[in-house]
Amino acid sequence: MDLRIIEKWLEERIGLSTETIGTEAVAKVVQARMQACGLADTDAYAAYLLRSEAEREELIESVIIPETWFFRNHRSFQFLQQYVKTEWLPARGHRVLRALSLPCSTGEEPYSMAMMLLDAGLSEQAIHVDAIDVSEKSLQKARNGVYGAESFRRKDADAAFRQRFFEPVSDKFHICSAVRQIVHFQQGNLLDAARFAKKDPYDIIFCRNVLIYLGEAAKKQTVKLLEKLLSANGIIFVGHAERPAFAGAPFEWIQETGVFACRRAAALQPSSAKTARKINSSPIKTPVAAVPPLKPALPLEPIFERRQRQQTPARPTKEGVTHSQVVEPIAQTEAANNERRHTVDMMTQTLDQARSLADQGQLAAALDVCDTVLKTDAVHVQAHFLKGLIYQALRDERRAEEWLNKTVYLDPNHEDALSYLAALAEFQGDFGKAARLRQRIERIRKKS
């Protein structure tokens, strides 16, 4: 199945890099859409896709992953409330606080913003939240405002907000009209420059966990858009793995544990200057997804060669060497090389399987597959790295750090592992360690 035309269209239309979710995942979506359309040929489907706006919308709906819940990364919302109380309100005047959720998915994020702002003491009339997403199905659920238990993942911590702002409806909860009136849902594509051309600046922007799915060109375009949309003293909240996308942008990071937010460098107040760090002007190479596409493990060849050298006896002298003494070692070496290549291919395929499982949310199964690789080669660098990312997805910071450190031990120049370790250090509030790790990455890049 040749998906190149479809993959190219997805990247041009919504910025989606298929490497971030895997070609296999795209193939499954396309296969399902082909069946729905009664088409058996990929080329025929590609042609139909390009001439049918309705099918283009259906394909986009199928590849989007609406994974969200109320107050996701609660520390960011706590910092939002702190910023409003200590900085925005004193300088407010008669202004309305403008906030943007992009993309807003099924509405949990923009509603969380509205609830937190109301809790900070703002009136309903003083808050305007725009919520934009490319998916009309997600927007319809957001407008309905009815949510089940899966949207409340902080259990007891969400109880107070749920009691205050929701009405029970059978086994679900309906958000109250006061909050719904604050949030304005709109369909839009973040790559559509004309869509945002006449937007007034926003004091708060949440653009989280979308950049990790975009190609490089779309990332740059999105960062430029955010820079344009942000007010002079505004704040942008992003996902923890998305910081490298802002390298070189005129922002500084807020240095608060567990808060991944930045603002214009010129906007820093004396009191907040201590909690911000200038974004490095040199980009740092970091995976674009929580579980990025795996390449064949580069360190495998040197490791196998080193083992081969350790197991190879000393070369015999030329005197008295028979024909069999020359031919047999050559044949053995050829067989060993073939076996080595086969093993490398098998382990690469096995890790691709682990990544596919992780993409589908089957994290425990993905860990088991990684362990299978490590039983064959206990020093497989990419298997160590993938285990670190999976543990991070499981929110097990201790084990994530352990396996990422093992990755760096095996490959001291593994920029991706070092970047994730730096992000973990910042999340834990150890900004000195994070800075040292990023300096180490810079030294590696200068040598390469």
Automatic annotation (TrEMBL):
Q: Which InterPro entries match?
A: Bact_Chemotaxis_MeTrfase, CheR_C, CheR_MeTrfase, SAM-dependent_MTases_sf, TPR-like_helical_dom_sf, TPR_rpt
User: Mind listing the GO biological process terms from this record?
Assistant: methylation
Gene Ontology molecular function: S-adenosylmethionine-dependent methyltransferase activity
Q: What ranges does the record give for the region Disordered, renumbered to this chain?
A: 305-324
Note whether Transit peptide occurs among the keywords. Answer: no
Q: Where is the CheR-type methyltransferase domain?
A: 1-242
- SUPFAM superfamilies registered for this protein in UniProt: S-adenosyl-L-methionine-dependent methyltransferases, TPR-like
Q: Pfam family example for this protein?
A: CheR
Sorted alphabetically, the keyword list is: Methyltransferase, S-adenosyl-L-methionine, TPR repeat, Transferase
Q: Where are the TPR repeats?
A: 381-414
Q: PANTHER family from the xrefs?
A: CHEMOTAXIS PROTEIN METHYLTRANSFERASE (PTHR24422:SF19)
This protein is called CheR methyltransferase, SAM binding domain protein
Q: Which organism is it from?
A: Candidatus Moduliflexus flocculans
Taxonomic lineage is: Bacteria, Candidatus Moduliflexota, Candidatus Moduliflexia, Candidatus Moduliflexales, Candidatus Moduliflexaceae
